[in-house]
Design goal:
This protein is mainly beta and about 325 residues long. It folds into three domains: about 15-120, Immunoglobulins (Immunoglobulin-like, Sandwich), CATH 2.60.40.10; about 135-210, Immunoglobulin-like, CATH 2.60.40; about 215-300, Immunoglobulin-like (Sandwich). The strands form six sheets. The chain has a six-stranded mixed beta sheet, with no helix packed on it. A five-stranded mixed beta sheet has the order 19-25-24-21-22, with no helix packed on it. The protein has a four-stranded antiparallel beta sheet with strand order 10-11-15-14, with no helix packed on it. The longest helix has 19 residues, at about 300-320. It is built from two helices and 25 strands. About 10% of the residues lie in helices and about 45% in strands.
Length: about 325
Amino acid sequence: MLRTAACLVLCVLTGMCVGEGVLPPGPLSGAVGGKVKFTTTLRPPELPFVSVSWTFEGVNIITSTSTNITEPGHANRITLDRSTGALELRSLVLEDSGEYLLTIIPEGGQQVQGRTTLQVYDLVSGATIRSPSAVLIEDKSYTNLSCEASGSISTREWMKDGRPLRQTDRLSFSMNNKTVFMQPVESSNHGTYQCRVSNPVSSVTATYDLTVNFGPHNISISGPSAAAPGGRVTLQCSADSVPPANFSWTFNGNETHVNTSMYVIERLQEDSIGNYTCTARNMVTMMENSTVLNLRASCTAPCWSFVLLLVSALTLRELL
C-alpha cells in the first residue's frame, strides 16, 4: 500500500503516470508521403531518462539509452525527442498503420508506458460523378448517380444545389453512399449535384448537372384583367418547363399568335375584349398546359362611344 502511495506521489510530481495520458488517445491520422508526430504529456526531467523506446506492432523501432538503436526499416524516417519521448515519423506508408507503444525508464523512477494508434491514408483524388446517358422525363425515367474516386475513402456526402441530399420515397442511397437511385425522376431532381469524398487527411468534391425534362407546370399569364379603351395592353405567358416551353395564343377560341410568350394589343377596342388563352407545350415531354385570362374594359358601355368619338376627332384633326 505504501508502494502504491509512493507511485501516486511520483505520478503527481513528475506527470509520468503509467499508461494514463502519456500519449494522445488516438487514433492519429497521416497521409501517405507525409509525416506525423507522436507527442507526449511528459515534462523534461531534471535527470535524463535512462531509456526511451518505441515499438510498432510488437517490433522495436528505436531504443535510446547512451546511444540510439534504430530498426533498419525506420532509419532516416524517425526523430526522437529524448527529453519528452516524442517521436516524429516521416515518409509515411500505408503499412505504418497500427499500434505504437512508448516505454520510458526514468532515473530512479517507475517505468512509464503509453499506447496509441496511427491510421495512414492515401490522399483522395480523381473524384467524378457518373450517370447513364439517357433523356430523362419526369415520372417516366429511372436513373442513378455514382460517385467514384481514387485513394482511401472514408465517407461520401451528397449535396444538391448546395444543400444536403435527403432520402425520399423516390430517392435512395446504396449502403456505402456511392450511388444515388432515382425511381422514377421528378422535376425536383433537376439541378446540380455534388459528391464530397473524404478521409481524415484529404477531401475532394465532384459536380454533376442532371437534366430532368419536365412540364410545363404552373402556367400563368401576367397582365391586366381590365384596361382602359384605346390603351396598349401587354400579356406575358410563363411556365415552369425543361426545356423551355413553346407558347401559342387563342382569342375567344381562335388561334392568333404562335411561338411567342407575349401578346400585345396595340389599341384596346371593343372587339378586343374577351378570353385570351395561352397554351404552353414541351416538345420533349410532349405535354401541354393552358390558362385563360378574361380581359375586360375598365369602363362601361357609354365609355366606348366617347372613345370612338375622341378617336374620330383626332383622326379628322390630323387630316386637316
